[in-house]
Amino acid sequence: MKISVQEGPFDAGAELDAFSHGRQEVGAVVSFTGIVRDREGGLIAMEIEHYPGMTEKAIGEIAEQARARWNLADLVVIHRFGSLPVGQPIMMVATAALHRRAAFEAAEYLMDYLKSRAPFWKKEVTQSGAHWVEATPEDEDALSRW
What we know:
By secondary structure, the protein is an alpha+beta fold. The chain has one domain (2-144): Molybdopterin biosynthesis MoaE subunit (Aldehyde Oxidoreductase, domain 3, Alpha-Beta Complex). The chain has four helices and eight strands, in the order E-H-E-E-H-E-E-E-H-E-E-H. It is globular.
């Protein structure tokens, strides 16, 4: 299991290749990479803050829950912090399981958790100023299915 909270960029393709290389014990590997997007125009960057140590511990706990619940062979969670310009990868999740349903559901579970509950604070920096980002009702609804 790999949990990385990092300021620097990552190569999702290289991470996925390393994660899936040589696996013969699983039937499915699922990955997702989140990108900083400009939904309404004018976004310059997303600034992400976290508490070192606390964030890794919280993600590690939810990752262990996912591993146990879906009987995962392995998983990767990478999440960046700092100032991220539009178009940059912000996070990645990869799961490996015997069957695709388990791999997909575990990946979705991890993504939903990271979006709404992981201890990150996100600020959108736009041409007209900056504001903190709150979880949306849709984000909360996504969590309720788990």
